[in-house]
Amino acid sequence: MSLETPNNLSVQSSREYFGRMYTYLVCLLLVVTTFVVLFYSPKRPQGSKKKERLNICFLHPDLGIGGAEQLVVDAAVGLQKKGHKVTIYTSYHDKKRCFPPTCDGTLDVHVHGNWLPLHTSGRMHLLKALLRFTWLSLAFLRDHKQKRFDVIFVDQISATIPLLHLSGIPILFYCHFPDLLLAKSGGLLKRIYRLPFDLLEEFTTNAADLVLVNSDFTRQVFKKTFTKISCNPKILYPCVDINIDPDYNAKSKDTKVILSLNRYEKKKNIELALHAFHLLSDTTQYKEGKLQLVIAGGYSDTVPENVECARELEALAKKLNIDKHVRFVKDIPNPEKYRILKEAMCLLYTPPNEHFGIVPLEAASVGTIVLACNSGGPLETIVSGSTGFLLAPQPDLWASTIKELLHQPSKVLEIGKAARSRVETLFGRETHIENLEAFLQEIVSK
Questions:
Q1: SS3 content of the chain, % helix, strand, coil (to 5)
Q2: Which of 83-97, 189-203, 225-239, 336-350 has the lowest average pLDDT?
Q3: Ramachandran angles phi, psi of 264, nearest 5°
Q4: At 219, which helix (H) or strand (E)?
Q5: Contact criterion met (CB below 8 Å) for 167 and 141
Q6: Would you say 226 and 208 are in contact if contact means Cβ atoms under 8 Å apart?
Q7: Which of 62, 100, 358, 428 is the most core-located residue (most Cβ within 10 A)?
Q8: Which ranges of 366-428 would DSSP assign to H, the alpha helix?
């Protein structure tokens, strides 16, 4: 019997054949990476004087329109404005769904590895993500010989940090949250499958010259999760644009807008907003048709969870008999987002234990009050009672707070102005870029 080759296999068998070959290649790369982690100690140049202008490379897996991408784009643009040279390497960049600086010529973006599949028959997403990022890292190492970068900013995926050390330049890793805690739970086989990847994440994270996290909440989780390493990450808060002027007059309109702004994902707990709004049906504003809930956020028809989540939320609104007062906005563009943020009386930020949460800062930057769960990142961005409200995720508590705001328009303006003032001081782009620049200079000059 002859050996099967791709030329004489059926279509289905060909897919299985290439799937196996692909998996073997990934495993081989992971073994090589693990070897480098354990046994290779790269020779690093001795500390040098501070360089006024750095040549910086950002490595990011998927340059879409999420919070992580916003941070990378803000950082890259900010550093470039300060005179540094910036290049972004990514495995995916859709010019129809991205932040403008990545497609209008402001930033130099290089795409490598997008030809590699994201999964095999709906499985092995993690394996394929690591292979794509490995390919991206190899492309960087090839280009580094000519471009001569000074420092690397690695975002989200730590697995290739040991390989990147072959460049001989320092590496900063930004950890939004430990990936092993983001993985969906499963049975014994799933845990066995995840084990080597979880260990790889921990030890490769420790290989970075400096690790940054987005909040003190994430730092505490990081320490509790990665117990086998002694890494003590530093905090670099994300930032927002504080050059967008608030429109306090828009909040004085007869029809009051209550806004929920999140990706259409189940973990965002958006149903809390619907249940709280349902408890406002006894208010005068609701009965007169002058109270509206807007559910807005990132959405794609190609993402099954987005589609399912939106369908469930729309069904819940009908079940609660509030659907005539609720408007769903999907895949909201940035200008429209800020227009609604300015009009909203308040923002309901419903995710519990959010790692950081950029949306509350975006709302506060235009003087809009935020009601958020009393856990995670919002504990650091909101001063309850002064710049917003931190509440247990119980609809009655949220509804009662909203009712107070409905009867006290002066308080809405007072708290909104205090929230904007705090954002200007602590979370503006200038502060963010100055802190990031200091971290980069620190590891370059070591």
A1: 50, 15, 35
A2: 189-203
A3: -75, 80
A4: helix 216-225
A5: yes
A6: no
A7: 358
A8: 378-381, 395-407, 409-426
Q: Evaluate whether 119 touches 89 at the Cβ level (below 8 Å).
A: no
| CB crowding 267-281: b at 16 or more within 10 Å, else e | ebbbbbbbbbbbbbe
How many angstroms separate the CA atoms of 143 and 108, rounded? 14
How far is it, in rounded angstroms, from Cα 386 to Cα 78? Answer: 30
Give CA separation, 217 vs 59, 210, 220, 269, 362, in Å. 24, 18, 5, 19, 20
Query: In a 3-state reduction of DSSP, which class is residue 311?
Result: helix
What token pair was written down for 77? 């643009």
115's tokens: 């030809």
CA–CA dist 160, 9 (Å, integer): 34
Average pLDDT, rounded, for the chain: 87
280 Cβ contact list (under 8 Å, min separation 6)? 286, 291, 399, 402, 403
Q: How confident is the model at residue 7 (pLDDT cuts 50, 70, 90)?
A: very low
End-to-end CA distance of the chain: 62
Angstrom CA distances, 304 to 64, 122, 181, 195, stand at: 17, 12, 21, 27
Q: For 330-380, give the DSSP string.
A: ES--HHHHHHHHHH-SEEEE--TT-SS-SHHHHHHHTT-EEEEESSSTHHH
| Nearest residue to 375 via CA among 360, 364, 396, 362 | 360
Q: Which amino acid is at 405?
A: L
* pLDDT of amino acid 23: 56
What digits encode the pLDDT tens for the residues 267-305? 999 999 999 999 999 999 999 999 999 999 988 888 889
Cα→Cα distances 308→193, 265, 300, Å: 27, 9, 11
Rg of the chain over Cα atoms, rounded to whole angstroms, equals: 24
Helix (H) or strand (E) holding 437: helix 429-444
pLDDT over 70 for what percent of the chain? 85
Residue 22 has pLDDT above 60, yes or no: no
| pLDDT tens-digit map of 142-161 | 999 999 999 999 999 999 99
The length of the chain in residues reads: 446
pLDDT in tens, 81-105: 999 999 999 999 988 888 899 999 9
Asked if 56 and 167 count as a contact pair (C-beta separation under 8 A), the reply is no
Q: Are 150 and 169 in contact (CB under 8 A)?
A: yes
